[in-house]
Design brief:
This protein has a domain of 214 residues. Helix 4 runs antiparallel to helix 5. Strand 11 and strand 12 form a beta hairpin. By secondary structure, the chain is α+β, with helices and mostly antiparallel strands. The strands form three sheets. A six-stranded antiparallel β-barrel has the order 6-7-10-11-9-8. The longest helix is centred in the last third of the chain and has 24 residues. The two termini are 34 Å apart. It binds cholesterol (CLR). The site of cholesterol has 18 residues, from helix 3, strand 2, strand 6, strand 7 and strand 10. Cholesterol binds next to helix 3, strand 2, strand 6, strand 7 and strand 10.
């Protein structure tokens, strides 16, 4: 029989499980790439793309110099840059205040899209990527579970929360803009300090490359994001304004947190490339009692919820300091990651080291190998089965999702003791 466990017990057992995955990460994070500047040939995007109007990204063959040395799996791991917002959310007493921090987390990942007009490497079927941060107390894992259409299934966990979902995008080049529509739902299981657990869901907004024809390509993110707390019935609506003709609308985001009875409790606003603030709706001051550690004193004053990390210029490919930690493979880590890990891809490594011709050659080679494997599967009448995720249905929202058993981390522990990766 299942004895209901206290939030504290769940947090404790999560914490000791996650700690077993710290092996290999003892050397800390890197703060630079091997090369100091990328000297990719500057080619006009429009010159290459003009013949591809109407196509989606999977049907475009572009020179490797349009790539950046990340994979789409690692672009999903970029969501992890501001997980401290989730830790803070869990510590807040009031559920509408928790929502403010969860919403800021959902918006925070867009800051790093600026200046990144480049194609991430397309993950191979069955490719995996793990990222563990002992200093932050979380572990992240993702597997490419489908190639056509490309789908990644991700699962991140920490004592105070689990964050999981499907990364699948529909893209289309319209000539004027190149639009990327994320389709999957993201789930957040929060374990508040005050007890119990809450389920939040949301979908990501549209990313778009604009200014292609004028030779000034820029990434914009726009659309409405609805973040639902299924446990309390509270909702946050965030509206990312499309960059219009006026410079003043660039990066703007506004929003509100609405309680289960439809009353607005918080208004939110700011810029997704910089800062996001929240202000309590007058009349609800008494509901939020816990003193906020963000320095908010007067409840009627807007307070800073999130601030973008510094963005030093001059990092190759316009990467951010967080992103450049993702593809690092320090000596001690190499023997811990699965043989399918992105960090071991020779083409992406070559790109990172500025060896563009070799990157192109290797990219061709691994993609050919993947094509041959698919033909072989078809000939045998077999279908690809994801190794670490299974399709399930969320019993709260009724939606399909990718369920993760945690087996990846268990096998990783076995490998550390001298075992072998198997079933890959
Ligand atoms: C946006 C946030 C989502 C995950 C995600 C998936 C696809 C990414 C997109 C993000 C950002 C923009 C992106 C896109 C794939 C291609 C596109 C990187 C990270 C770039 C800007 C397109 C470049 C155009 C080429 C023709 C050079 O959670």
């Amino acid at each position: 029989t299942d004895v209901p466990r206290s939030t504290e017990d769940v947090r404790d057992s999560k914490s000791s499980e996650i700690e077993t995955s710290y092996q290999g990460y003892e050397d800390g994070i890197r703060n630079k790439l091997k090369m100091d500047a990328d000297d990719r040939p500057k080619i006009s995007l429009w010159g290459i793309l003009k013949s591809m109007i109407g196509k989606d990204m999977t049907k475009m063959t572009l020179p490797v110099s349009f790539n950046e040395p990340t994979s789409l799996l690692q672009r999903v791991a970029e969501d992890m840059e501001y997980t401290d917002l989730l830790d803070t959310a869990a510590d807040r007493q009031d559920s509408t205040e928790r929502m403010v921090y969860v919403a800021a987390f959902a918006a925070s990942e867009y800051a790093s899209t600026i200046g990144r007009v480049a194609k991430p490497f397309n993950p191979l079927l069955g490719e995996t990527y793990e990222y563990v941060r002992p200093d932050k107390g979380y572990r992240f894992f993702i597997e490419q579970v489908s190639h056509h259409p490309p789908i990644g299934a991700a699962y991140a966990e920490s004592p105070k929360w689990d964050y999981y979902g499907e990364s699948a995008v529909k893209s289309k080049f319209y000539g004027k803009s190149f639009d990327i529509n994320p389709l999957g739902t993201w789930f957040l299981r929060l374990r508040p300090t005050s007890g119990g657990s809450e389920l939040y869901t949301w979908k990501k907004v549209t990313s778009s490359v604009i200014g292609i024809i004028t030779g000034n390509p820029t990434v914009d993110n726009y659309g409405a994001m609805e973040i639902k707390n299924h446990t309390t019935g509270e909702v946050c609506i965030l509206d990312f304004k499309a960059r219009g003709w006026k410079a003043s609308s660039a990066y703007q985001v506004t929003g509100k947190v609405v309680d289960a009875t439809g009353k607005t409790r918080w208004s939110m606003g700011g810029r997704w490339n910089d800062k996001i603030y929240a202000r309590l709706t007058p009349g609800y001051e008494d509901t939020v009692t816990a003193p906020s550690k963000t320095g908010r004193t007067d409840t009627n004053q807007a307070f800073l919820v999130w601030e973008c990390h510094e963005r030093p210029t001059g990092i190759p490919f316009n990467l951010t300091p967080f992103v450049l930690t993702l593809n690092d493979v320090p000596g001690r880590l190499r023997r811990h990651v699965a043989p399918t890990d992105t960090r071991l891809r020779p083409d992406q490594r070559a790109m990172e080291d500025g060896e563009y011709d070799f990157a192109a050659e290797e990219k061709n080679r691994v993609e050919e190998k993947q094509r041959a494997a698919r033909k072989q599967r078809e000939a045998n009448g077999e279908e690809f089965v994801p190794r670490w995720f299974k399709k399930g249905r969320c019993d709260i929202t009724g939606e399909e999702y990718w369920s993760f058993s945690g087996e990846y981390w268990k096998m990783r522990n076995e490998v550390a003791k001298g075992g072998q990766w198997h079933g890959l």
